[in-house]
Amino acid sequence: MTPGGGRAGRRGRRAAGGPTWQHGAMAERIAGVATGAAAWGLAPAAAPDHTAPPTPSIRQQADDLVLDIGPQHPSTHGVLRLSLALDGDRIMSAKPVIGYLHRGAEKLFEVRDYRQIIMLANRHDWLGAFANELGIVLAAERLLGLQVPERGVWARTLLAELNRALSHLMFLGCYPEELCEGAREPAGVPGALQARETLQAVMEEISGGRMHYMFNRVGGLKDELPLGWLDRVRASVADTRAALAEIEAIVFGSAAFRRRTRGIGGLTRDQVLQYGVSGPVARAAAVDFDLRRDEPYLAYGELGDVLRIATRRDGDCLARFECLLDQLAVSLDLADACARRLASLPRGPVHVRLPKVVKVPEGHAYAWTEAPLGISGYYLVSKGDKTPWRLKLRTPSFSNVQALTEMLPGSMVSDLVPILGSMFFIVGDIDK
Hints:
By secondary structure, the chain is mainly α. The chain folds into two domains: 21-97, no CATH class; 105-431, Cytochrome-c3 Hydrogenase, chain B (Orthogonal Bundle), CATH 1.10.645.10. Helix content is 47%, strand content 11%. It is built from 18 helices and eight strands. The chain has helices at 6-16, 24-32, 56-63, 105-108, 114-121, 129-144, 150-180, 190-207, 229-253, 255-261, 269-275, 279-283, 291-294, 317-344, 396-402, 404-407, 416-421, 427-431, and strands spanning 65-69, 81-87, 90-97, 216-217, 220-221, 363-371, 374-382, 390-394. The strands form three sheets. A three-stranded antiparallel sheet has the order 1-2-3. Helix 7 (150-180) runs antiparallel to helix 14.
């Protein structure tokens, strides 16, 4: 029984001026102002003790108001809750609360074969579905000792870069509109979303899926490249490259955009390393690391003359989007190079013929890839069955979101939108 439970007990507590017992977000709010209850009319003010030493930390806690943002409805773009302690409009502390979209994918992997796993895996980062599939099949192929045919390797590399460009274009197309709405300058970047549709068309043509491609298989790719598809890839890449000027005009030339992003949401190099942040967010803070160059996989080892790693030093929202824009240009160059190489290769298989049910030998393997949002890791443990004994995911969004506890304190509430939008995370990629 709760002390003083029942209707009479609740009336008694109200009459006494004490706060009622609450649950959830309201309980945090009451806890945040409990020692400053007199200011809210919840309790009579106690006489100040002038002999006691000052305790600024306690006083700060007393003045803070805990504000919960989210969780949003599941039909929105992911479900994330931020618990913020505010002093006026300034954020004093921040705690990201995750798990609302948790699907238990890692446990589901254990009762599904290696074809079924691909269907599940490409859904946690729905903007980088091909990259999600890729890490799993690479880990299985390492245990199997498989060598994918050359055409399959180059086709995978091409598709990975097209998927990376699609992910980047989504952030580049939507973020300025959210930030600069109401400004005199044009807010959105319609060219980015239009160019994205041209790339989306060639991805949909080859795989049959608009977002969830399910085109990777253990041993290579599902099907051969369609006739004339490489020509359409080159055309779509050219259209996207032509749209870069419009995107650059916003990111580099818009005063409203730079005003909302310069010096906002700074992240230092040490903080990046402590929290395991990766991808464009890490490179914007002078962490010069990219698996495509530093631990090459697929055909990246042969693309060193095309692959350039974009970095910045400021670590703020603006630096993150400058890195993202530079990385988009590099992905388009890589896609062009892969398409040229595929066109020069003789026709041949894009996969190794395997039994319908693949059994991976007993052992364990780790594969990591440079996904659009950062480093994705896949630790596979097999007992020799058709299903994994264990398959653990390391997703970039998880680490990126944890760094918010370092970034948000000291910022204004009005800076939440530019900061959150520049951290390049997908909520499904956090919760898996």
